Amino acid sequence: MMPASLLLFFFALVQACTGPHPPRMPEKNTPYRLLSLGDSYTIGEQVPEADRFPVQAAALLQKKQLDFAPPVIVATTGWTTDELQAGIRQAKGQGPFSFVTLLIGVNNQYRGRDTAEYRLQFRELLQTAIHFAQNLPRHVFVLSIPDWGVTPFAAKEEAGRTREVIAAQIDEFNGINAAEAAAAGAHYIEITQASRLALQDSSLLAPDGLHPSGKMYAEWARLLADGIAAELKG
Fold it and tell me: What is the pTM of this model?
């Protein structure tokens, strides 16, 4: 979305466990590990590191007496699906990871990219995420794309990029990622409707009037932490 400049991000590529029956629980005294893949929404453009939704989710899980290491984040402001794919290929690091989040596509919509292309690239990224999660689809959490059309930034956009047009396009992209998540057996967290509350509540936005604030990220983190905790309870 948006600014093309690259900000700080954490890269970690995975060499995930590929055995047919990977363990659900980490070895004794080994914390769970969360990998988060995405763009500005995942790296937390305009907010402190502690306010990023993966970081807040890990902190909430710690409060639930679940031992989680600080999350590994592979994300950069402005990334599209193919740019995330390239970033993953270039990254270095090691897994395995206990859980993986995937939130990507707003920049595909913003740049007017084709939805058929998005489906193919998102499907590939989702399979990569599952591989990272030790081949456990239920340990992957896809988040829907927020609606930036309600922001002051969108109000400054040129003719033809009305709030209604942006919302309809975001919904179309989310229809794709929701269907792909369901087909793969991954979890899906719907955050788009909540993101639209920023139209009436400016506290949900960062100072740039475009990206979410730590307050909005806190709600995403709560949904993610609750989902992970429920999955671990089986």
Answer: 0.88
